[in-house]
Amino acid sequence: MKAFGTVHKYGDNVDTDVIIPARYLNSSDPKELAEKCMIDIDTDFVKRVKAGDIMVANKNFGCGSSREHAPIAIKASGISCVIAETFARIFYRNAINIGLPIIECPDAAKEIEAGDQVEIDFDNGMIYDRTKGTQYQGQAFPEFMQKIIKAEGLINYINNK
Amino acid sequence: MERQNIWNKEDITMGMTMTQKILAAHAGLDQVVAGQLIEADLDLVLGNDVTAPVAIHEMEKMTIKKVFDKDKIALVPDHFTPNKDIKSAEHCKCVREFAYDQEITNYFEIGEMGIEHALLPEKGLVVAGDVVIGADSHTCTYGALGAFSTGVGSTDMAAGMATGKAWFKIPSAIKFVLTGKPANWVSGKDVILHIIGMIGVDGALYKSMEFVGEGIQNLSMDDRFAMANMAIEAGAKNGIFPVDDFAIEYMKEHSTKEYTVYEADSDAEYDETYIIDLSTLKPTIAFPHLPENTRTIDEVGDVKIDQVVIGSCTNGRIEDLRIAAKVLEGRKVAKGMRVIVFPATQAIYLQAMEEGLLSTFIKAGAIVSTPTCGPCLGGHMGILAKGERAVATTNRNFVGRMGHVESEVYLASPAVAAASAITGKISGPSDLGL
Question: Which pTM does this prediction carry?
Answer without folding.
Answer: 0.96
